[in-house]
Design a protein that fits this description.
Elements: H1 50-56, H2 59-67, H3 82-88, H4 92-100, H5 116-123, H6 126-134, H7 149-155, H8 159-167, H9 182-189, H10 196-200, H11 217-224, H12 227-236, H13 250-257, H14 260-276, H15 279-286, H16 288-307, H17 314-336, E1 360-362, E2 367-369, E3 374-376, E4 381-383, H18 388-416, H19 421-424, H20 426-436, H21 438-466, H22 471-476, H23 499-502
């Protein structure tokens, strides 16, 4: 296997390609696999040899030839057995029949010296994998490239098969011939978040090293430029200080590859980890909620104090307010916001449990939220089962409180401020009430802002509850331009036909 992905020398099994007898290229054509069921054939089924009959799933013809004396364990000229052909084409009835007639379930064959289980995994046939394991197939056997079953499932991104193999006792840290674990292979060979994210749900060893270059999964992700995998590994707590056989850390490799985004991500993560180890910051993090409330109250008091200064210089007041806001933003960013707000301490493992009703995996919370409505920026949490009614109460009380503040502000101005609205107009009235009490004017503006968004969002939420749908579902149901999908019928040609007849028609 060379280059950016796995290759097969003897069975041309691309992401959706069957094993055909006459094909010897490496995953170049795009024809579709022969699937179980009735397929048009161009020759008499009674004249097919047993290999072609197996590839087509002709059970009766195969039984006829076996009963006539054909040995089911006999490989063909490519050193491939009938069980291999049946497994790669997902012919479950034929697999059961051949095994009952003495076929060896773990027979090695082909140029890659693979078992039928390996061939089924490469094609992503989960039902066939389940059947072969029930019949005694050994998932720990390695093929000619040194990969076991779980490694092949990871390489070809068949996450359901990975989950099934793990549920059947396969070690998540199983090493291949070169000492690479499935997590290392995912970081090295598969660009994107999956299956790395899925493997991390099962707590694999993040700091294990391979047997040749002594690289960790993070090293391989950096070397391959797999930003998504590197980010997931860093979030999971992968050690950034481990050195490989050449004495290089992950950051050293990123600098060598000149990947600026990777360099920035690693340096930023290193800086954040250094801050988390600071004793003072850890102590402040312990009292985060208290500091957050205290800072909010302090800000409100300080703004009111500055607004009510006896000085007539608005430049001085403006500079003081700007200094207060900048200082508070820096404090929240550097101290109170040291760690991200969390929603739930645990997250549902993807593809491992029954999916809750209307559940969505929130990337911000990294949690599976049942009855998902939205991720609220105002409370920094997801709204769903267990807290949706509290969110409605929050909006209701916020709306009522804001309206009450507006009323009391108007009442204060009418009783304590000398105004001439009818004589001088709105602008003069605004300057008069601002000069009378800048603090009350500040509270009035805040109340206006919160009244508008809270009342509108409360109305939308109540409307959605009344008609039984959520913000997430209503957003997904909006028509998107260019989202029309065309249904293309692809002819599934039998084994042995030419490649040109197998090419699908492009629209």
């Amino acid at each position: 296997m060379a280059g950016g992905g796995p290759a097969c020398k003897n069975h041309c099994h691309g992401p959706h390609r069957p094993h055909v007898h006459s094909c010897r290229s490496v995953c170049r054509e795009k024809d579709v696999p022969v699937l179980p069921g009735l397929h048009p054939i161009t020759e008499d089924p009674g004249t097919c040899d047993i290999v072609k009959a197996t590839q087509y799933g002709m059970l009766e013809r195969c039984k006829e030839l076996v009963e006539a004396g054909y040995d089911v364990r006999q490989p063909d000229k490519e050193n491939v057995t009938l069980l291999h052909w049946a497994a790669i084409n997902n012919r479950q009835e034929l697999v059961k029949y051949y095994i009952s007639k003495g076929a060896v379930v773990d027979q090695l064959g082909g140029d890659l010296n693979s078992t039928p289980l390996h061939w089924a995994i490469r094609q992503g046939h989960l039902p066939m994998v389940i059947l072969l394991l029930k019949c005694g197939a050994d998932p720990s056997l390695i093929d000619g490239e040194g990969f076991s079953s779980i490694h092949l499932a990871v390489l070809f991104q068949h996450v359901p098969i990975v989950a099934y193999l793990i549920s059947k006792g396969q070690n998540i840290d199983t090493a291949d011939f070169n000492g690479l674990t499935p997590l290392m292979l995912a970081a090295r060979k598969v660009v994107g978040p999956e299956p790395t994210r899925f493997l991390l749900k099962f707590n694999p060893s993040l700091n294990a090293v391979d047997g040749v270059q002594k690289n960790t999964a993070l090293h391989w992700a950096v070397t391959s430029g797999n930003v998504s995998a590197a980010e997931l590994l860093l979030e999971a707590g992968a050690n950034m200080d481990i050195k490989n056989a050449k004495g290089e850390t992950a950051l050293d490799l990123a600098i060598q590859t000149q990947n600026r985004f990777m360099i920035y991500m690693l340096m930023e993560e290193g800086r954040m980890r250094g801050r988390r180890n600071n004793r003072l910051l850890r102590m402040m993090e312990k009292y985060e909620l208290f500091l957050l409330l205290a800072s909010c109250l302090t800000l409100l008091w300080a703004v009111g104090y500055v607004m009510n200064l006896s000085s007539d210089s608005w430049l001085l007041k403006g500079c003081l307010l700007l200094f207060l806001l900048a200082g508070m933003a820096l404090f929240v960013r550097q101290f109170v916001g040291l760690k991200n707000l969390r929603y739930l301490p645990t997250a549902l493992m993807l593809s491992s449990v029954r999916k809750p009703l209307r559940s969505v995996h929130c990337l911000l919370c990294d949690s599976c939220v049942a009855r998902y409505d939205q991720h609220s920026l105002w409370i920094a949490q997801c709204i769903g089962v267990g807290n949706h009614h509290y969110y409605l109460l929050f909006l209701s009380f916020l709306t009522v409180t804001s309206v009450w503040l507006l009323y009391r502000s108007l009442l204060y101005w009418s009783n304590h401020c000398v105004t001439s609205y009818h004589a001088d107009g709105a602008w003069t009235y605004f300057t008069q009430i601002t000069s009378c009490s800048p603090w009350v004017s500040y509270i009035f503006l805040l109340a206006c802002f919160h009244t508008v968004w809270a009342s509108l969002w409360l109305t939308i939420q109540l409307y959605q509850v009344l008609f039984c749908f959520s913000s997430y579902s209503s957003h997904n149901e909006l028509p998107h331009e260019g989202s029309i999908k065309f249904e293309i019928l692809l002819a599934r040609k039998p084994v042995g036909t030419t490649i040109f007849k197998d090419l699908p028609v492009s629209l």
